[in-house]
C-alpha cells in the first residue's frame, strides 16, 4: 500500500510539473515543444479549442487506436498519467487563467524544458507515461518496423513543422530546441532518481556489519571470505547496494563498529532485482 501511494504521488507531482511548464511557459509563448501537447497548441491557434480539451480527446482516440492496433498493454498508471495531465491542463485553463511567467523566449524555452523534463522523468521513473506521441510511435514501430526512438523523432518533427507553419520559423525553432532539451534532460533526471551506491566493505567485524545491513538498513548483502595480501589476516568482504540515504546511515555505523574497515563506493545508474526494480517490471 505504501509503495502504491508513493508511486502515484510521484506520478501526480510529475503531472503537475508538466502542466505548469505547458501552461506558464510554453503555451502563452506559442512554443510547441513536440508531443501531443505541442499539437494541442497548434490546433488551439487554428480552431480556438482549449489545449486541455484537445489532449483529453486526443488521448481517448490514441488509446482506442492502441487497443485496436497494438493491443494496448499500457497499464493503469499510464492511463492515469495521460488523462490526469489532460484534466489538470483543462482545470488550470478554466479556473486559473494562466499567463506567461516570462515573455523572453529563451528563458521560457529553457525554464519550461527543465520543469517539463523533471515532470516527465518522475512519471517515467514509475514505469508510466503521459501517452501521446509514445502511442503513435508504437503504432509506427509495429507497422513500419522502425526503432521507437526514430518513430518519436518523426512524430515530434512533424509537429514542429506544423508549428513553423502556424507560428512562424522563429517560434517553431524554439519549439525544436525545446524538443532536444527535453529529450536529453529526461534521461539525466531519470538517472538521478535511480542512482544508488554499490559498496564493498572489508572488515574483521563483518558479522556485526552484516547484521546491521540486514536488520537496520533493510537491505540484502553478499559475504565473501578474504585474506589480506600483505597482512595475511582473515577478513570478510561484504557487497551491498543501497540508496544514498541508506549509505550515509551505513557509513556512520561502519565507522562506529570498525574504524579500520576498508570501504569502496561506486555510483550505479540502475539496479534490477529484489528490493529495487523487478526484472519483470
From TrEMBL:
Transmembrane annotation, as ranges: 9-27, 47-71, 78-96, 102-124, 171-190
Keyword list (alphabetical) reads:
Cell membrane, Membrane, Transmembrane, Transmembrane helix
Residue stretches making up the DUF2179 domain = 219-273
> In terms of domain of life, where is this protein from?
Bacteria
Q: What is the membrane topology noted in the UniProt record heading this document?
A: Multi-pass membrane protein
Instruction: Tell me the compartments it is located in.
Output: Cell membrane
Question: What CDD domains does the entry give?
Answer: YitT_C
InterPro entries in the record, alphabetically? DUF2179, N-reg_PII/ATP_PRibTrfase_C, UPF0750_membrane, YitT
Question: Quick one: a GO cellular component term?
Answer: plasma membrane
The protein's name in its UniProt record: YitT family protein
Annotated source species: Clostridium paridis
- Provide the taxonomic classification: Bacteria, Bacillati, Bacillota, Clostridia, Eubacteriales
